[in-house]
Amino acid sequence: MLHCGVSECFDHSPAMSVEDAIQTVLDGGGLQTEHFDSSPETVQPVVLRKTVCYIVCAVIFNEKNEVLMVQEAKLECHGRWYLPAGRMERSESIVEAMMREVKEEAGLDCQPITLLRVEEQGPQWIRFVLLAEETGGSLKTEAEADTESIQAQWWDQESPLPLRGRDILCLIDAGLKYRKKPWFTPVLPVDLPCHTVCQRLLLTLSGPSGDLWVLLSCEEEDPHLPVAVSDRAVALTWAAHKLMQECMPFSSRKPNLKTWGILGVQHNGRSPGKTDGVCFNTLVSVDYNDLDIDAGQPPFLENHKFQWHKLDSPHLREKIEQRLSSGSIIPMHSFF
Fold it and tell me: Which one of 39, 53, 168, 180 counts the least CB within 10 Å of its CB?
C-alpha cells in the first residue's frame, strides 16, 4: 500500500506510462480528460457564449514585418484600429474561429503558425492569441465595409494610427520576437473534448542533487498527471495553488509555486454545451526553500490521493529543466 506520498515505480502496466504522458505533454500533445483530481463537488459543463466566452486574436505580418490591422465598424469603437479578433462561435475550433475572423474582418485567407499567448480573466473569459501567415485573399477596402469591419491595412507600427486599445502592442511585439527567434516549438490546439475549463498540471520539484520530482494523482487505478478544474471566481493560475493546498491541508508552511505557462491546449467544440471546455496543459514549479529536500526526499504529502514520482529518465529531466531555465513556453497572462 502506498503511504502518503512518494512513488519510485509502479507494479502495473497502464495504457500509457507516466513518462510517456509527460513526453506527450512536453511535445504539445494532448491526453484524454476523463476525470478531475481537484474540483468542486459537482462540475457543470460550460456553455460557449453563455457561461464562457472565448476570444481569438490573430497576429499576421507581411514580408516587411508590417502587421495586419482592421478598422472597427462597431459603434463603441468606430473608426479605430485593432488586430483581427472576435468571439468564437458554436461548434468552432480555436483555429477555425481565428481563420474566420481574419477572412471576415480583413479579407485575407490565413493559416496558423502557433499559439502565441493566452490571456484570461478567470475561466469565463479567455483570449487565444495566434501567430498566423497570409495564404491568399485580398485586403478589405472601404467599398467592402460591413458590420464586421470598415477596412484592413498593413501597419508599420510607426505611422500614427488611432488604436482601439493599446493591449495589442505587447501581442505585436511578441509576434515580432517569435518571428525573429522562436523561444518555443510551434504549438497548436489539439482536438480533444473536455466539458469544463481545467488544467492538467505538470507540477515539478527539483532536488539539490539533480533529482526531479513530478506530482501525480493516484486516486484512480493508474497514477497520472493531476487535472484541476478552474474556479469561476479566480484566475486560472490559481488551480495549482488549490491543488497544493489539497495535498498539504494541515501543513503550516505552504510552498511557493510558479506557473510558467502553457505547454499545450486541448479543445473540441463539436458538441455545443457538451464539449465547450478547454484543458490547458500547464507547467508549474514548486519552491520549498529546501524544506525537507536536504534529506533527498520531496516534502511529505498529507493527502493519500497524491504522490511524488521521481523522474529517472535523463531525457525528460533535461527537457523539463530546459523549459524552466529558458522560459520556452506559451505565456499565460491574467487580468486579475
Answer: 180
Q: Where are the domains of the chain?
A: 6-46+195-334, 53-180
Do the domains at 6-46+195-334 and 53-180 have one common CATH topology?
yes
Q: pLDDT tens, position by position, for the chain (336 residues)?
A: 233 343 333 333 346 899 999 999 999 999 999 889 999 888 999 999 999 999 999 999 999 999 999 999 999 999 999 999 999 999 999 999 999 999 999 999 999 999 999 999 999 999 999 999 999 999 999 999 999 999 999 999 999 999 999 999 999 999 999 999 999 999 999 999 999 999 999 999 988 778 899 999 987 668 999 999 998 889 998 999 999 999 988 877 777 899 999 999 999 999 999 999 999 999 999 986 655 555 677 888 999 999 999 999 999 999 999 999 999 999 999 987
Only one residue has cell 491546449, namely 265
> Distance of CA 187 to CAs 92, 120, 133, 183, Å?
18, 18, 15, 11
CATH code assigned to 6-46+195-334? 3.90.79
- Cα-based distances in Å from 220 to 65, 174, 200, 215: 50, 40, 15, 14
Place of cell 519552491: 287
